[in-house]
Amino acid sequence: MHPSLEAFALAAGLLALGAALVRRFGFPPLPVYLLTGLLMGHRLPVEELEPLPSLGLLLLLFSVGLEFGPDRLKELSGRATRAGLYDALALPLGFLLGLLAGLDARGAALLAGIIYISSSAVIVKLIIDLRRAANPESEVVLGVLVLEDLVIALLLALLGGHGPGGVLAGVLLALAYLAFARLLGPHLVRLMESFSDELVLLLGAAFTAGTALLFHALGASEGVGAFLSGMVAASLGLRERLERLFGPVRDLGVALFFLVVGAEATGLLRGLTPVGAGLALLGLLLKLPLNHLGGARAGLGRKRRLYAALYLLPRGEFNLVLGSLALAQGYPLVAQVAVLMVLLSVPLGALLIRFAPEIGKALFPPEKKARAAAKAG
Amino acid sequence: MKVEEVALPGVGRKFTITVASGDRLVIVVHSSGKRELQYFEAGEDDEPRAALDLTDEEAREVGAILAGVLFHPEAVGDTQSKLGQKVIEWIKVLPGSRLAGKRVGEIPCPPGPTSWPWTGPGRPWCRTRGRRWSWRWGTPWWWRAPGRRWKP
Predict the structure, then answer these.
(1) Which of A44, A221, A232, A359 minimizes the number of CB atoms within 10 Å of its CB?
(2) Is the domain A3-376 a CATH 1.20.1440.20 member?
(3) Interface pTM (ipTM) of the complex?
């Protein structure tokens, strides 16, 4: 028997137990995966789980690219764009914060990205699990996420390369992929329609992993590769089909990935300085007023703009990509901030989003009472 | 009646239907097939009065009942619901086609459960089955416009 079987059985069992526990309380399972890893990580042989967690991250980035690709920009309402512009102010502010913390320009740019990017995967999952999709703030939040993901993909393409050669290669390769999708797309769409589901699944997996590998070989970030292949697949009209086919595989991989992140965080955070902790907290707080303002500009009501600000709290996949990039480029402080922000914001964000209606009620009760009184009178 | 349609990336599409009384029905069609319904009373923006989740199958059943497929109310008469039962899809009509430059009403597409293929490669043909008809049926796959086939 291969030792990975034991590790997998243990990990899947623990995750299932955690998910079942929180389900009783109507709570989303994602933060539990992270906490399970944090608590049980030292007992779990997490290395044995590879390659499932890494594959989970790639598939996660792939499906983010699939759903949040540039073709969504056309469907974006003006309200969401306005909110997204306010949200983007987090980039220069984060950059300044990085410079103040004594980082050089590259490190500060990485920190700015980490502070700026909310996790579309976590937020979408929270919105679906908590049945908030019909609410007006969800529309604005998802629009903001479209903009964030595109900006961060650009940032990753610029920062991910090793030296100017890697950057140039990454950008050129990205352009080549987009041109390929544009030119050959219409022909491939018709071909793909006749393919069986299994073939599409295998082709998609090969395409995603191959693209990530190609980007890595050229010295660019493999995360961008996976994101880009999702974008290309979406432009080939395969969005719904791939989402349906990849969904279960991705969810399993993502659950294990978050478990491993939790397990490995303890080692990374051992040398955490007060500066790192302060930066993480400041980064989380920084976006709240910006998003609140953005929500106001998007025409949301008092409560709804508060919800929108809370929704955009969780950081996730791109933080970890940026964090591992920062670690590879010699900025351990930035990597620590990235991981700490994920660890803090996913459970905290889930909690706040879950109880957002209660918070809103507690903060803005008078209007409601007045209306009820008016109705009764 | 006013219908607004918004894309919710990662979730699906949201339709906000405001009826004459000012009440609103928000329908979210998830990519997974689930439908989420929320009902807001006129003037009430904060909390929905009622919410309902439907599976894909249930939603189709409800939709069919609403469209009067299972029971067509006599009081409404025939004329008003006719358009609602036609399925219209937008397709590109090639310059040489018989349909080019014609209004929908001028196109000879007789009612009744018959299908009338217009022969010739690349020509769209229409067929009528019961009360539903669509130009798309029978259009060869290589001729169909890629991407969006339905335009509201």
Answers:
(1) A359
(2) no
(3) 0.77
